[in-house]
Amino acid sequence: MTETPRIWIIGASDGIGRELARQYAQEGARLILSARRMAALEELATRIGGAEIRPLDVADRASIEEAARAIAATGPVDRIVHLAALYDPGRIADLDPDKAAQIITVNLTGSFHIAQIGPRVLRAGGQIALCGSVAGYIGLPQGQIYSATKAGVINLAESLRAERADLDVRLICPGFVETRLTEKNDFKMPALIKPEEAATAIRKGLAGRRFEIHFPHRLTRSLKLVRALPYALSMRLTRRLSREDDT
Ligand SMILES: NC(=O)c1ccc[n+]([C@@H]2O[C@H](COP(=O)([O-])OP(=O)(O)OC[C@H]3O[C@@H](n4cnc5c(N)ncnc54)[C@H](OP(=O)(O)O)[C@@H]3O)[C@@H](O)[C@H]2O)c1
Hints:
This protein is of the alpha/beta class. The chain has one domain (6-246): NAD(P)-binding Rossmann-like Domain (Rossmann fold, 3-Layer(aba) Sandwich), CATH 3.40.50.720. It has helices at residues 15-26, 38-47, 61-72, 97-117, 146-163, 195-207, 217-228, 231-246; strands at residues 6-10, 30-34, 52-53, 77-82, 122-131, 168-174, 212-215. Helix 6 (195-207) links the parallel strand 6 and strand 7. The structure holds NADP nicotinamide-adenine-dinucleotide phosphate.
């Protein structure tokens, strides 16, 4: 990584991405900021002392292509961090099918577009990070359709890592972070952390060597353990969570 790396953050206008942009700017990185809301990106760019702004909608492949062309025209990128996603939790029986389709398009198809188009703007050996979630580790009650898309993103990142030895492919799996995304949760979120802590964990993880950056460990390690159990045991636990929801 160069002294002043060029970093493209997709999903930079809010939450974890916005805080990550702020921290990388403090380190002296040259930033490219993407999301749908131009005004929020401009405000952030001003606040962090300047950045290249490339608005896009990850559900609209043409807008990603256009941004990538403009970015490539001014030189290679060292790191891409793709964080854009939508969240609308609920039980499968209650889901609005149109909303569910939109979440799949933004979270999963959007990550596929970035996995395909992103490498074109990277320097040789450059880094690309996709964002899964602990919600993608194992099916829990109330988590659909978001959790299914995050399981898909985890799988996508694993495939990209296997296929692209020429790149540094990473996977980010946060636990609960206090952003507008989790404002929708009506339950007490275990091990909830602030975006500052999440962004710091991401920066440290991406500077390290591990494929998966997951945090906070007090939550992620126990969920990994549940995932590793035989279904007969893990489903006993997840059904119990479902019954607790009913009461
Ligand atoms: N917060 C948590 O507890 C948590 C836990 C696990 C995983 N994660 C993951 O972490 C990532 C960041 O989450 P967050 O909590 O920071 O969410 P957030 O505060 O809602 O921010 C999401 C970002 O994605 C952008 N975005 C949404 N739809 C987009 C689209 N179609 N095209 C381009 N940009 C789009 C939003 O900007 P615009 O609205 O301007 O487009 C915003 O900048 C997500 O991938 C999320 O799934 C979060």
